[in-house]
Amino acid sequence: MANSLLKYYFFTCPSKYKSMSAQIISGKAIAEDMLNGIKSRISQRLSAGKRAPSLAVILVGGDPASSIYVRNKRLACEKVGINSIAYDLASDIKESELFALIQKLNEDDTIDGILVQSPLPPQIDEKLIIEHISASKDVDGFHPYNIGRLAVRQPTLRSCTPFGVIKMLNSANINIKGLDAVVVGVSNHVGRPMALELLLAGCTVTCCHRHTKDLQGNIARADLVVAAAGKAGLIKGDWIKPGAIVVDIGINRLDNGTICGDVDFETAKERAGWITPVPGGVGPMTVATLMENTLLAMELRGV
């Protein structure tokens, strides 16, 4: 009820409420609750004499950002009780060798999920690698089969970041059904599956990208903005419709070493009704959803 009243006031009386600060959506807190729930479910499996899920995490090369992401995922596995099996490979590995490893993991019944951290070195075709992972072990939710199931409204393993956004909004009791949503960025990993998730949730969805003629105009009309372009400060705060929901997926490292999103947060938070911070917003939800996908992959295989 409170959520509906806030939406009414923000969307019908913008001049009166445009100076109000947005409610901050803490993905970190919601993700923590998710991880605790996953840990409990795994504990119940163990008490029933079943094994814990296992996740194979493949890191190719020593890219610093990738190493940090992989470390966070492995720490989350340890926290909830998922067996994390590390494959740290040289940057000059041949594509055929990586294919062989993935095939071995596909056939290993003790492995429930396979994750290959991107980006990959130039000699490896990331699209082929994704397709080579068994769809039933694709816990990133990137395989064309899993994206296709989402497109026809029969999802199984769903892309972690977009599904994490939906889980975050649901946990914050924000009803998005019927809203006009704009997704900025159309990557296969985030923007496109995000648009499909929003369609599934009942939104009317517009996708914006480098060829969009009027980005500002599209954002100004949106009840919900999801920024996923990977460009710092792309979306100006004064473009935001008063009372809108702003979800910032962008993660950008500035020259001074600080992290920021795609949205001008300080200005946007004075106009938005709800907004996610960077860091501490969507990022933790991605990791938590990966953990849930790993457990789900195991359950769907009937192990």
From TrEMBL:
Pathway membership, UniProt: One-carbon metabolism; tetrahydrofolate interconversion
Name the keywords, alphabetized: Amino-acid biosynthesis, Histidine biosynthesis, Hydrolase, Methionine biosynthesis, Multifunctional enzyme, NADP, One-carbon metabolism, Oxidoreductase, Purine biosynthesis
Residues forming the Tetrahydrofolate dehydrogenase/cyclohydrolase catalytic domain are: 25-140
Query: Which Gene Ontology BP annotations are present?
Result: L-histidine biosynthetic process; methionine biosynthetic process; purine nucleotide biosynthetic process; tetrahydrofolate interconversion
Task: Provide the reaction this enzyme catalyses.
Answer: (6R)-5,10-methenyltetrahydrofolate + H2O = (6R)-10-formyltetrahydrofolate + H(+); (6R)-5,10-methylene-5,6,7,8-tetrahydrofolate + NADP(+) = (6R)-5,10-methenyltetrahydrofolate + NADPH
Q: Which Gene3D superfamilies match?
A: Leucine Dehydrogenase, chain A, domain 1, NAD(P)-binding Rossmann-like Domain
Span of the secretion signal?
none
Q: What is its EC number?
A: 1.5.1.5, 3.5.4.9
Q: Which segments constitute the Tetrahydrofolate dehydrogenase/cyclohydrolase NAD(P)-binding domain? A: 159-299
Recorded hits in SUPFAM superfamilies, A to Z, give:
Aminoacid dehydrogenase-like, N-terminal domain, NAD(P)-binding Rossmann-fold domains
Task: Name the family the entry cites.
Answer: Belongs to the tetrahydrofolate dehydrogenase/cyclohydrolase family.
What does this protein do, in the record's words? Catalyzes the oxidation of 5,10-methylenetetrahydrofolate to 5,10-methenyltetrahydrofolate and then the hydrolysis of 5,10-methenyltetrahydrofolate to 10-formyltetrahydrofolate.
Known partners and oligomeric status: Homodimer.
This one is known as Bifunctional protein FolD
Recorded source organism is Candidatus Methylopumilus turicensis
List the lineage, top down. Bacteria, Pseudomonadati, Pseudomonadota, Betaproteobacteria, Nitrosomonadales
